[in-house]
Amino acid sequence: AFSALDTSDARYRTWLLAQRRRIESRLAFPRSRQLARDQGTSVVRVVVRRDGAAADAPHVIRSSGFDDLDSAALLAVRSSLPFGPIPADLAAGQPEITVTLPIEFANPMVD
Fold this sequence. Notes:
Elements: H1 10-26, H2 31-35, E1 40-49, E2 59-62, H3 67-80, E3 96-105
Antiparallel strand pairs: 1-2, 1-3
Helix pairs in contact: 1-3
């Protein structure tokens, strides 16, 4: 039987925050988009095994509207893998979890 992951659980939020920090440290805002004053949010989904490795390739489930922003988001997620291991007592019994990551490109040149 499948039981849904409680994403309000502090243990999940702590784990997810650590993974988001890894991704953000690897995120590169394409210079041409900065100069054009573009911004957007790419939403990337990845299935993660208990050991933090990806069970399949991350993919964009909602585009920012810009191919290069979406590509940069995917590159940042891929280069952050494997993630840290999923805590043993979180989503117990589930061999993997699906993680949906909004990757925001906020342009510092836009007020």
